[in-house]
Amino acid sequence: MDETQTFGKLIRQARKDRGYSQRELAGLLGVDFTYLSKLENDRADYAPKEEVIRGLARNLGIDEEELIFLAGRIPHHYENFLKENNREITALFRRLQENPNFAKQVFDAASGKDK
């Protein structure tokens, strides 16, 4: 995924690549096409619900969890882990932000690039 990729840009491009109109995709998701337009233009007042994001991902061939994170949400199944480890997670995020080399090592390890 491109570093400057936004949630809206990604779903708009994927929708176009799949040949859907906004109305068609909105119908598949059970949302109003004007809401989908706001999402595509990164102008929605709030991030969509996880179910809508997962529906977008399934219909557009995008990894569901990546899309959830890009939308600024955390997948439900991670919530307990984050709550149970809130101090460690906070320290990890701080260290990732403060140390780009450490962040690269973590991300490379997570993606399997360190092998």
Write the layout of secondary structure elements.
Blueprint: H1 7-18, H2 22-29, H3 33-40, H4 50-60, H5 64-70, H6 76-84, H7 86-98, H8 100-111
Helix pairs in contact: 2-3, 4-5, 7-8
Structure in words:
The chain has 115 residues and is an all-alpha fold. It has two domains: 69 residues, 434 Repressor (Amino-terminal Domain); 27 residues, no CATH class. It has eight helices and no strands. Helix 4 crosses helix 5 and helix 7 crosses helix 8. The radius of gyration is 16 Å and the shape is elongated. The two termini are 21 Å apart. The model has no long low-confidence stretch (mean pLDDT 93). InterPro entries: Cro/C1-type_HTH (IPR001387), Lambda_DNA-bd_dom_sf (IPR010982). Pfam families: HTH_19 (PF12844). This is XRE family transcriptional regulator.
Key words describing this protein structure:
115 residues, mainly alpha, 8 helices, 0% strand
Q: Note the total helix count.
A: 8
The gross shape turns out to be elongated
CATH class group of the largest domain:
Mainly Alpha
Low-confidence stretches: none
Estimate percent helicity: 55-70%
Structural class estimated from helices and strands: mainly alpha
CATH topology of the largest domain: 434 Repressor (Amino-terminal Domain)
Order of helices and strands: HHHHHHHH
Structurally, how many domains make up the residues?
2
Using the 3D structure, state the CATH architecture of the largest domain.
Orthogonal Bundle
Q: What's the story with the biggest beta sheet?
A: none
CATH homologous superfamily caption of the largest domain: lambda repressor-like DNA-binding domains
What is the strand tally?
0
- The proportion of strand residues reads under 5%
N-to-C span: 21 Å
Q: Give the radius of gyration.
A: 16 Å
Mean pLDDT: 93
